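Our platform keeps sequence and structure together, in a single record for each protein. Such a record has a labelled line for the sequence and another for the backbone structure tokens. Nothing more is needed to write down the fold, since each code stands for a local backbone conformation. For reference, a complete record is included directly beneath this paragraph:
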Amino acid sequence: MPPLRWFAVGTADASVPDPGAQATREALAHELAQLLIVFCSEALDLRALLREVRGVAGDVPLIGCTTAGEIATNGPRDASVVVCALGGEGFAVDTALATDASSDLRAAGARAARCVPSRDDLPHRILLLLSDGLAGDQREILRGAYGVLGSGVPLVGGCAGDDLHMTRTHQLFDDLLVTDSVLGAGIASSGPLGIGVRHGWRRVGEPMLVTHSGGNRVYTLDDRPALDVYLERLAMKEVSPESEEALARLALTHPLGLGQRNGEEEVRFIGGADFSDRSLSCIAEVPQGGLVWLMEGDAESVLSAADAACADSLGALRGQPPLGLLAFDCIARRSVLGEHGIRTEIDRLSESAPGAPIAGFYTYGEIARTNGVGGFHNQTLVVLALA
């Protein structure tokens, strides 16, 4: 008999034959698998990888996405595939796919949200979302999901990456390789599910007023071109169009923080700039009329945030031991920590949950909503603990 609930992780990289098959065999540790979740690099042959996974797993429901780096129990990875599986009669799972998401992100979020099982014997529910991180204002996805589920079902997940090329991400759904899509996996469980979310960034200097913005683009701060103000605040000289890579490196460690009513900041990753109109482009909406701050962090503040996020997720399990952890970690945090630091971060997650397997990926945005309508984050670590 398989355990009532189980969670397992398998990994492989491009150097081995059939990496998808190898990782899937490792993940299918028990019978009655309910869901496969696949995180993989764009460096792999994605269509071949999907065939390999399906060849081993058969018709087990599958969702997944490409990444900006993969996470497994033994540490961070690149050019690899991580497959995690959950199963047993203590879980029930339904999945959903919303394509052409960028044409109406709110409607895509609503379609993806209509897959959460409702069973009296499985009282703990959550919606896991994987989205195209380049499809537009990701907050619209959460608004669509909220319109379907209300505040009673927490949301968790991350935005697909493409190894920082910032051109196109891919999503995996059963036998399909798609892009510009939102995937949902509604999970009902007989055991508790815990979410932790922390960023580790702190404010620098005085606030700036967003005097002109539209969607995810910021045109002016304090009535001046946003790019100019941003660079001046960092004491940087003019960044020319030939220096877009330099701006990208700068933005990884200096996001914007949006003031919130609870006193904490919601972080926005600066994904680029328009050097003609001197505007900044963010991964999600920066509301006009709001206050923003420059943010900064260091390895210690980011690692402390990881400890706190993990502790919050485990604390929500009400004393039950974790079966496993899913980690959605912003690629910008990886830039702050460096290669040694990201390994330390995963080691600390493992130490907080001894024996629990870990799977996840480095994202272009993170999703964690336990209450309210919001819940989209940048440059943050989100941890989901399953008991």
Observations:
- The radius of gyration is 20 Å.
- Residues 331-352 form the longest helix (22 residues).
- The CA atoms of residues 24 and 87 lie 14 Å apart.
- The chain has two domains: 6-198+301-386, 202-296.
